[in-house]
Amino acid sequence: MEFSSIHISIWFIFIQPLFLLFLFSSASSSRLAGNEVDRLSLLAFKAEIVTDTLGILSSWNESLHFCRWPGITCGRRHQRVTVLELRSSGMAGHLSPHIGNLSFLRALNLQNNSFSHTIPPEIGRLFRLERLRLHNNSFSGHIPFNISRCSNLQYLHLYRNTLSGELPTEIASLSKLRVLNLGRNNFHGKIPPSFGNLSSLQRLSVQKNNLHGGIPNSLGQLKSLCGICCGNTRLCGGIPHFRLPKCISKQSKRGLSPKLNLIISVSCGVVGLVLVLLLALLYRSRKARALKSTSGSSLGVSLLKLSYGDLLKATDGFSASNMIGSGSFGSVYKGVLNQHEERNVAVKVLNLQTSRASKSFISECEALKSIRHRNLVKLLTACSSIDFQGNDFKALVYEFMVNGSLDEWLHISAQGVDMPANLPKNLNLTQRVNIAIDVACALDYLHNRSHMPIVHCDIKPSNILLDSDMTACVGDFGLARYLRDASCPSALHESSSNVIKGTIGYTPPEYGMGGEVSTYGDVYSYGILLLEMLTGKRPTYEMFNGGLDLHNFVMMALPERVGEICDPLLVQIEESSSSTNPRRNRGNHAPNDRRKRVVECLTSIARVGVACSVAMPRERKDMSNVVAELSLIRDVLIGTRMPREYL
């Protein structure tokens, strides 16, 4: 007993403190080692970024602990990275496989950027990950099969990328998954029946993919499922019997028919089934009436049946007082359709005596019959008939845009155009940026998001129309071309080396040397348009000669003298606004914060315009990147994001 007491005393006096010190040291070393792994992994992530528009990653250096780097959130206890938040940051590059070393990561949000290449399989190491948002990027390849190891994943957003392959059945093991958004990719095959094991799933989106087959009956077992979006696929067949779900509100989804254009509603109980049947009958009835009323229209989708006489009456005999524009292939008139509750329309009458006018009519019909976007002018119907003298007559009827064209607003003093009395006579910077974003979104849709890449071929201010809310819509598709591939020339319909391909000043240089149309040509025209919006000068302005053009004029002013070459009216409006409207200065920044933001934005807009209008086609920006960069510029301008110098 005495011997044991001595040993116990020695333990408490000497050995126990050393043992506790050893345990503490081991724990501290482990924590420090984990922190270093996170730091090095973030630096490896940074190394794969080739474009950092806002300069956010410039702060990722030794001057700050990595937990204080922009976009990083760490847990309080272990100081390990739990959130990587870099959405809408204007970044481009690859996603580093070292991302898999951030073992405490719970949320990875990289949406609305330009990340490309594949999603690294190392992402499967993130067993604590709950939210993975990679939508609106350019990721390609397959979904990593081992993503199923992210057992805590609840939200998986891969919408609007270029991912391909079949949907991995391994996803079905993610029992906590609530939202699975895989729309607007290039997936093929069928929806795996094993998805019926996603017991927590509330929303499934697979629209705009090359999927075929039907919706698996196993999905009908999902009690939490509130909605399925599967439009613009090749899915067909019946709709599973759903056990109709815990959600109370009605959820809409695309029905399954060969063209996927039946809209139905799913709600709870027997009422939902009755509603589905009623909507199906209503759809068939409306479709039959629409087909009967569509004559003389090459679109085959119009609900308006208009004759030559209707349009003659609507435009007061195509009177000069109703003419609102003219172009290479015809004239545009304002019209009022009395038989349709005095609906204002714009009627484009083709001059069939002009060479290629008929082909322009066909091109515009074909381009607009299968595309829908908020920033594309809405074609209501087409009329191909005979006038009262027995001559061929062709016209296109559009939704009327009350605020006219962008050209009228940019050069209003020179044109003497009468604008609505309650509107300002010039566009401020925020309006110009919003219009630039609208046009960029339209071109991004045409080039990258439509069923087949479309080149507009005639982007210029007079073809940009403004509605009552000053939302911009791209119009006049008379020169539009379908392409086999967005990055390759070679139009489907005909070689374009010997046809009109745009307007002088906006036409890219390669077209003048016999090059075929491509999306790069639209990007060039857009760049010139953007510089015209910035400077107020047309590309055909008399000072541009002898090697000096609008592109070089702005490029030589970067970066210090951009303010000197901007539209004087724009500068005047911004200065007046800053001095008379202090509410536009947000936050706790200096009084001249608005002026600094304006200068930053003007410089950034000039850089985007110059980058889009460089001489070499493949050096020009992609329109998806333009949308992201201009959106960031707008955020800085309105004060929701600080300029680079504040980051």
UniProtKB/TrEMBL annotation:
It is found in: Cell membrane; Membrane. GO terms for molecular function: ATP binding; protein serine/threonine kinase activity. GO terms for cellular component: plasma membrane. PROSITE patterns: PROTEIN_KINASE_ATP, PROTEIN_KINASE_DOM, PROTEIN_KINASE_ST. Keywords: ATP-binding, Cell membrane, Glycoprotein, Kinase, Leucine-rich repeat, Membrane, Nucleotide-binding, Phosphoprotein, Receptor, Repeat, Serine/threonine-protein kinase, Signal, Transferase, Transmembrane, Transmembrane helix. It is a single-pass membrane protein; Single-pass type I membrane protein. ATP binds at K348. The chain crosses the membrane at residues 6-24, 260-283. It comes from the Eukaryota. Its EC number is 2.7.11.1. It is an enzyme of class 2 (transferase). It catalyses: L-threonyl-[protein] + ATP = O-phospho-L-threonyl-[protein] + ADP + H(+); L-seryl-[protein] + ATP = O-phospho-L-seryl-[protein] + ADP + H(+). Its main location: membrane. Residues 318-632 form the Protein kinase domain. InterPro entries: Kinase-like_dom_sf, Leu-rich_rpt, Leu-rich_rpt_typical-subtyp, LRR_dom_sf, LRR_N_plant-typ, LRR_R13L4/SHOC2-like, Plant_receptor-like_S/T_kinase, Prot_kinase_dom. Belongs to the RLP family. Belongs to the protein kinase superfamily. Ser/Thr protein kinase family. This is non-specific serine/threonine protein kinase. It comes from Pyrus ussuriensis x Pyrus communis.
